[in-house]
C-alpha cells in the first residue's frame, strides 16, 4: 500500500482549497520550496518544471529567483489542485499541465533548464519519474527534490527527547479512548527511499548526484494543528469521519503543551543530468 496521501484524495476541491489556504497562512511549504529553489541555481534559467506542483507554491518562489522572462511549467496529477493554483496565482508565466510525474516527458517536448519537486517525490514511482525527468532536462540541468524524513528512513531529532505528549500522540489517545478507534498495524508502506536507494535510482536513471543533505525544520504546534486540518492529512486515518477527526484535533490541541516546537528531518537531493 502507498502512504495514505499518495495520490488518492488530492483531486478534491475542498482538500485543494484548504491545502492552498494552509500554504498561504503557514510557512512549511514556502520554507521547503525556498530551500529547493536556492539549490537549483535558477538565476539565469528561463524554463523550469515544478513537478507535483500542487497549487504552485514552489513555482511562485522559483519565479522570484529567475530572470524576468522566466517561465515555469507546473505538472501535477490532481486537476483540483491546479484549478486552485491557477486562480490564486493567476500568473501568465506559469503553464499548468495535469499529468503524472512519471509521464512528464509525454507532455513536455521542450528541453527544460531545471526540475524542482517539493514535498512529493515519494508519492511517485521514483525510477519511472527519474527516467522521465532525465528525458526533458538539458544536459547539466539540475533536478532538486526533498523527501520527508519518515519516507527516507530518517528519524526526527526530538522523537526521544520530548517529555510531554505530541499533538499526534494525543490525537491517537483521544481517538482510542473516546471514539473507539482501533489502531491498525501499518500495512506495507511501500519502498523506503533511503539516501542510498535514491542515489542508486538516480545513477541508474543517468543522473550524477551532487548533494544529499539532511536538513531539519522546526514547526510550532499551531502550524501542526493547521496542517492536520487539511482533510488528506487529518489523523487518525481510516474508520472515523472527517468531522470526528476535527473534534479530536480540537480536543488534542486544547490539551497539548502549546509551547512545544517539533523538529522534522528532510532529505534534500540535488542531481544533475
Ligand atoms: C504535498 S503536495 C505538494 C504540492 C507542492 N509541491 C507544494 O510544495 O505545495 C503533493 C502533490 O503531489 C501530487 N502528486 C502525487 N502523486 C503524483 C504523481 N504521481 N504525479 C504528479 N503529481 C502527484 C498531488 O496531487 C499533490 O498536489
Automatic annotation (TrEMBL):
InterPro entries: Methyltransf_25 (IPR041698), SAM-dependent_MTases_sf (IPR029063)
Signal sequence bounds: none
Pfam families: Methyltransf_25
Annotated Methyltransferase domain residues: 48-141
The organism's place on the tree of life at top rank: Bacteria
Protein name (record): Methyltransferase domain-containing protein
Originating organism: Acrocarpospora pleiomorpha
